[in-house]
Amino acid sequence: MKETLSNTDGSFDFLDDFKLDIFTKEIHIFTPKGEIIDIPKGSTVIDFAYNIHTDVGNHAIAAKVNHKMAPLSQTLYSGDQVESLTSRKQNPKIEWLNFAMSAHAKSQIKKALKADKSADIDKGRRMYEKKQKELNLNLDSKDIRHLREKLDISTDDEFFYQLGSGQLKEN
Strands (DSSP E) along the chain, which ranges? Predict the structure, then answer.
């Protein structure tokens, strides 16, 4: 913009082009109630859901775009009417990062995934400690490291994560 201002001949005709450029970077989406939501051009259903509310995004399962079912990955266009569909059983998936376009949606997905992973690590740690007590074992960090090496797992947190998320069997 600075360069454009320095290259003008005193007229400000460039402002119309500048305003047009700003407005074409956003699209206008309608909610079922007729409210207008402005989101970046190229946004998908998941971006729309996170724009409505983080909780809507975190639990989004699909949407109705112009009264037709649509996946979270569908690109939206100006004038679309969008209704987000949610389920309390749904949680963010890492795949969502492949089609989320907005920085807000991506950051909220990453935040939720990190929280889920942390919860699984804690759950795995509790499962491990419970199994130790049941078997009356007293394993130390050296024993855990040996177990991790046998399973080809690089860190304690990754071991507990895999245990807590059900990737490892609790034998």
Answer: 26-30, 36-40, 60-65, 68-70, 82-86
Select from 108, 103, 76, 104 the least CA-distant residue to 92: 108
DSSP classification of residue 81? B
The per-residue DSSP string of 46-72 comes to HHHHHHH-HHHHHTEEEEEETTEEE-T
pTM over 0.85: no
Tokens of 147: 């177990």
Token pair belonging to 52: 């409505």
Local structure of 35: helix, strand or coil = coil
4 to each of 10, 13, 16, 24, 26, how far by Cα in Å? Answer: 11, 11, 13, 19, 22
Strand 36-40 to strand 26-30: parallel, antiparallel, or no bridges (unpaired)? antiparallel
**Token code pair at residue 92:** 């963010």
Cβ atoms of residues 96 and 109 within 8 Å: yes
pLDDT digits (tens, 9 = 90+) for 127-169: 988 988 888 888 778 888 888 888 999 999 999 999 998 888 7
3-class secondary structure, 105: helix
